[in-house]
Amino acid sequence: MEEPEVHPDLEPIAFLLGRWEGAGVGGYPTIESFNFGQEIEFGHNGKPFLTYVSRTWLLDQDGNRVRPLATESGYWRMQPERQLEVLLAHPTGIVEIYIGEVVFHKIELRTDVVARTASAKEYTAGYRLYGLVNGNLMWAYEMAAMGRPLTDHMSAELKKVG
């Protein structure tokens, strides 16, 4: 089957399409700092949204995979005037809806809604910043959890592969 054309509404975020891999750093006041590896895949089926899957794993000091960390999946939907809606689901019992804006190759997102199951850890808000810098996807994430306000949590630099 032939690859469908990218929906014209996705033009502002079409630079995300493909598979990205790289490494980053994480930490939070309630945990020890850590290094992680990551792969993100943005896809499409011709409709006006991107599919999104992210997987991370803990890295040791030599850069070897130790164990899986977080995974999330969802959809990125462009809205008029370069506004963006992102829906993310996590296997830890959290669902997030982000709203934000695309300015050239920079995307800024803030949670509009956070829903948690009874067994999920306390998490109340997130802020994400994505940008294309010298062909690499850079991102940073702040979260509000465990009674704390928005605080730096993770960031990474990913290179397009494949």
UniProtKB/TrEMBL annotation:
Keywords: Heme, Iron, Isomerase, Metal-binding. It catalyses: peroxynitrite = nitrate. GO terms for molecular function: heme binding; metal ion binding; peroxynitrite isomerase activity. Binds 1 heme b group per subunit, that coordinates a highly solvent-exposed Fe(III) atom. A motif (GXWXGXG) lies at residues 18-24. Its cofactor is heme b. Pathway: Nitrogen metabolism. InterPro entries: Calycin, Nb(III)_bact/plant, Nitrobindin, THAP4-like_heme-bd. It comes from the Bacteria. Signal peptide: none annotated. Residues 9-160 form the THAP4-like heme-binding domain. Its EC number is 5.99.-.-. The keyword Iron applies. Pfam families: THAP4_heme-bd. Heme b binds at residues 30, 121, 153. Heme-binding protein able to scavenge peroxynitrite and to protect free L-tyrosine against peroxynitrite-mediated nitration, by acting as a peroxynitrite isomerase that converts peroxynitrite to nitrate. Therefore, this protein likely plays a role in peroxynitrite sensing and in the detoxification of reactive nitrogen and oxygen species (RNS and ROS, respectively). Is able to bind nitric oxide (NO) in vitro, but may act as a sensor of peroxynitrite levels in vivo. Belongs to the nitrobindin family. Forms a 10-stranded antiparallel beta-barrel structure able to accommodate a hydrophobic ligand in its interior. In fact, this fold hosts the heme group, which is located in a wide surface cleft. This is Peroxynitrite isomerase. The lineage of its organism: Bacteria, Bacillati, Actinomycetota, Actinomycetes, Streptosporangiales.
